[in-house]
């Protein structure tokens, strides 16, 4: 039997022990960073329904038909490779309940670099953490190495 594959979120754990329970709906991500990691992993594993399920109710895509958004997410995921994720910084929930995660996502589309850095906002909806919004910069827009950034030094 082949060894279990590593999790695409780059946690160092095997997929079955890391993000798979979240994708299957067996558990909720315990914090914003784990949710962000599980969403990156969901893109890599083409788990579009999970990506929909973990959008906050106030996210603009939630006002659109679920089937349409899931189809678009699946098409996007199928057309890209997601080889590496680096979490550079995280911030615990503030007084309004917003937690932040800053990450660098290595992404390729048909061999072309589409990597980016994003500062994401997450809110807990009473059931679990949900992706609310994010500020994204393409790798080519950065003037410093992406791994050198923190939430406080992020240029947006």
Automatic annotation (TrEMBL):
<protein>
    <recommendedName>
        <fullName>YchJ-like middle NTF2-like domain-containing protein</fullName>
    </recommendedName>
</protein>
<dbReference type="Pfam" id="PF17775">
    <property type="entry name" value="YchJ_M-like"/>
</dbReference>
<dbReference type="InterPro" id="IPR048469">
    <property type="entry name" value="YchJ-like_M"/>
</dbReference>
<dbReference type="InterPro" id="IPR032710">
    <property type="entry name" value="NTF2-like_dom_sf"/>
</dbReference>
<feature type="domain" description="YchJ-like middle NTF2-like">
    <location>
        <begin position="31"/>
        <end position="134"/>
    </location>
</feature>
